[in-house]
Design brief:
eight-stranded mixed β-sheet, 2 domains, alpha/beta
Amino acid sequence: MTGDDRFGCNRHVTLPGPLRLDGGVLLSPVEIAYETYGSLAADGGNAILVCHALTGDQHVASTHPRTGKPGWWTRMIGPGKPIDPARDFVICANVLGSCMGSSGPASVNPATGRPWGMAFPVITIRDMVRAQAMLLDHLGVGRLKAIVGGSMGGMQALSWTATFPERIDAAVIIASTARHTAQNIAFHEVGRQAIMADPNWQSGDYYGGEPPAAGLAVARMAAHITYLSEAGLTEKFGRRLQAREAKSFGFDADFQVESYLRHQGLSFVDRFDANSYLYITRAMDYFDLAEEHGGLLANAFRASRARFCLVSFDTDWLYPTSESRSIVQALNAAGAPVSFVELSSPYGHDAFLLDAPEMNRVVDGFLRGGR
């Protein structure tokens, strides 16, 4: 992608706020890092907001400045793709609480001139959505042609349709859920404890020193297991050993799958902030769209006039198909138009980020169906 607005532009804005958070805190100012692709139509009717997952960022379809890797959803966004900057004005913002330029634990607290650390206020998925709404107001986008997100991005898309129903024409929710299960929360807690047990964490006040890299790497390793499937791991690694002359018992990675997970953990610490991981995983755990609407999920969608498309994958055990079906049932109860498909993939939860031609066809057909 180039710096041309049509092909992607990395931006940052400081909004005066205040942004009232669910916890009652008024956050001001609000920093938001974002990227846009394409141009907003004269009638404003071609805007699509893409929401990223837990460890994602705004670099959805352009080269990541830290890793040098292509954007995390170039399979979905680009010329000739389901979301095409030649016709769509695409926006992707780094979520509140993250570490790629938006307000979060690593950003500067204006009251002290130092990074917030654990003094940053607790945030929710709905707070992320409200911050995104502030950004859209700044960009002059009153209404969205569509909102699209996978995993935590799907949570944001669901929250958008409930929080700002008048601003959404269509919503695509992929491999997501309307609330975390006890198992989801348990895996996140293992990761959080790994970070906080790292001596370098220093109760979150590690900025300017050594970050809790070991703890964050372990957190990433534990989470990454939930993104895969047993079939995928077996096919890719099985019980194959590392290629070396002799096995050793101890700290060396004897099995290929061990080496793979360690690589995932070590590469992650180079681009992510440990405190942000604590805050965002907690926001995901707090998310319960039904609880926000009197305990009945259908109530969340009664004011919406959007079309919905839900996609799940048969090997996703993090957010299995049953979670998507529950959302579909609630949408049906609310009288909302919804289409749903379960796709077959050996890649588990990560399938939505990988080469999935069937998913692209589903999303493309759905988005075109609203024209």
